[in-house]
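Per your request, structure below.
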């Protein structure tokens, strides 16, 4: 999916647009914190489980229909893989790959390096503006870096013109300034992807 020219391309009904460097950083922080708390080694996060959790938090349901979700991972061009997820390598294990869940349908993953010509915040906001023009998209889930810089604020502004019939959910680690979208806490989906059970806490 070339987000710079998708006016004639049909997008999936569900799109997860994530700052991959940010979710990787948050998973590392959660791993360190929970290993101390529960006293056991925690494996790397399962990327497919995380994507399904985000889709559920974004409103996707097992309703008997055939669903398709695009997972767009935007990352620094210098980084070749996620450090705290499996699978991890952008070029060989993630981009152009897909998996199917019997309840939620097919998830198509693509990774896009940024930083040489356009920075991550600009890429995310340009992608959002393009996605908002595609009426076939029913659910948009966005995970910006809400902790550094003004990425979250730029995403918030870009979503101002979201159509009323598109369910837009923005994920952050804590409640943030609201906008024309729903909010969910990112940590829940990542904790589940790390295999941490509620009774362990």
């Amino acid at each position: 999916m070339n987000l710079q020219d998708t006016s004639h391309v049909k997008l999936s009904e569900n799109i997860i647009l994530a700052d991959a460097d940010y979710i990787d950083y948050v998973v590392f922080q959660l791993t360190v914190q929970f290993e101390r708390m529960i006293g056991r080694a925690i494996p790397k996060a399962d990327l497919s489980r995380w994507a399904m959790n985000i889709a559920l938090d974004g409103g996707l349901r097992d309703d008997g229909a055939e669903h398709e979700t695009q997972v767009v991972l935007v990352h620094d061009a210098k980084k070749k893989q996620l450090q705290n997820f499996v699978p991890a390598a952008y070029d060989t294990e993630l981009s152009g790959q897909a998996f199917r869940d019997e309840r939620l349908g097919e998830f198509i993953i693509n990774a896009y390096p940024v930083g040489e010509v356009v920075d991550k915040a600009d890429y995310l906001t340009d992608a959002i503006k393009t996605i908002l023009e595609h009426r076939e998209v029913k659910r948009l889930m966005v995970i910006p870096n809400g902790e550094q810089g003004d990425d979250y604020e730029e995403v918030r502004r870009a979503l101002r013109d979201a159509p009323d019939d598109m369910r837009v959910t923005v994920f952050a680690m804590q409640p943030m300034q609201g906008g024309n979208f729903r909010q969910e806490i990112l940590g829940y989906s990542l904790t589940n992807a790390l295999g941490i059970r509620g009774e362990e806490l």
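The first helix runs from residue 20 to 38.

Regards,
D.
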